[in-house]
Specification:
10 strands; 2 domains; 12 helices; 5-stranded mixed beta sheet; 314 residues; Nucleotidyltransferase, domain 5; alpha/beta
């Protein structure tokens, strides 16, 4: 019998919100994209979330009822059973009807998409950074994801932040890193000494601050030593998260697949080559780099399907 039910996957975060609606056979019925989800627990946050989810579903299913057999929502900062999950669950109930709803951290749907629900590790380097692994027993472990104040090393913001720290130290020591100084000054329109003050004054948000990172990558590719060091340090930090996750779980053998997800990896070999070199030094595991099979929102849709039908392996 054909399953005419609809299954919904949602990927909501700092870079935008995406939804994917599929049939029971995995056929894409609709997809939508809208603005970011941020600070749900702040005043007015639930109303903003409701509007965002409604907008995404309207673009995905403009002429159909929003009634799903299963839905899986991935959001940054979610801890299962925590206050944020309960807030999101209450908003979802106002926006669409669903028989079974699961809400989890966005790193979990990134893993689900990258590895198509199969064992492996995903390392995410967007604005922030985190690594998450799931083994053949369904057990999971993570490293990183502690936010811009206490973590995010190797993420887009972390690289931009560390670049400014390096630059300000060089100015303090009367040995300014001129190419890096020129880059920050031209990009933000203020001198580095003022830029830090402007960030504290919230004249620059984290997302806009991270936008300089691709330009630092460009400087590194031209051979600038300071920019190259920033990416080498980022690569080591990200690779160490992969290794840390591997050691937190039991695996059926010593070969582990890992996949990179996020905007920082647009730098390609600049970040991936030193990561591979770092991981190749492991005495415990053979780390195998694999390209992500699907996007995080597709991972959310796969998880929605698996809640009803069991693991779906495309």
């Amino acid at each position: 019998m054909t399953d005419s039910s609809l299954y919904l996957g949602i990927d909501g975060g700092q870079s935008g919100t995406r939804c994917l609606v599929v049939s029971g056979s995995g056929e894409i019925i609709g997809q939508g994209e809208t603005g970011k989800i941020d600070f749900v627990l702040a005043p007015g946050g639930k109303d903003k979330l409701k509007a965002t989810l409604s907008s995404a579903l309207q673009s995905a299913l403009p002429n159909r009822e929003w009634n799903f057999r299963s839905a899986f929502v991935g959001l940054s900062g979610v801890v299962q059973g925590g206050e944020l999950e309960e807030a999101v669950r209450s908003v979802c109930a106002q926006v669409f009807q669903v028989q079974k709803l699961e809400i989890d951290n966005d790193s979990f749907i990134a893993w689900a998409g990258a590895h198509a629900l199969q064992p492996g590790i995903v390392v995410i380097a967007g604005s922030g950074s985190v690594s998450l692994g799931v083994n053949d027993q369904g057990e999971r472990a993570r490293a990183g994801g502690w936010g811009y104040l206490f973590g995010d090393e190797g993420g887009g913001f972390g690289i931009a932040r560390d670049g400014l720290k390096m630059l300000l130290t060089s100015i303090d020591n009367n040995k300014p890193l001129v190419p890096l100084m020129d880059l920050y000054t031209d990009f933000f329109g203020v001198r580095p000494e003022q830029l830090g003050m402007d960030f504290y004054a919230q004249k620059f948000g984290r997302d806009s601050f991270a936008e300089i990172t691709p330009h630092i990558a460009g400087l590194a590719l031209k051979g600038d030593a300071a920019a190259k060091k920033l990416f080498l340090d980022a690569a080591e930090s990200l690779a160490s998260k992969v290794d840390a996750v591997a050691h937190k779980l039991k695996w059926p053998d010593n070969e582990i697949s890992w996949s990179p997800v996020g905007g920082v990896f647009k730098a390609k070999d600049l970040i991936l080559d030193p990561m591979i070199e770092y991981l190749n030094q492991s005495k415990d595991y053979q780390f195998r780099l694999t390209a992500p099979k699907f996007s995080p929102v597709a991972g959310a849709a796969l998880l929605a399907l698996s809640q009803i039908k069991g693991p779906q392996i495309p």
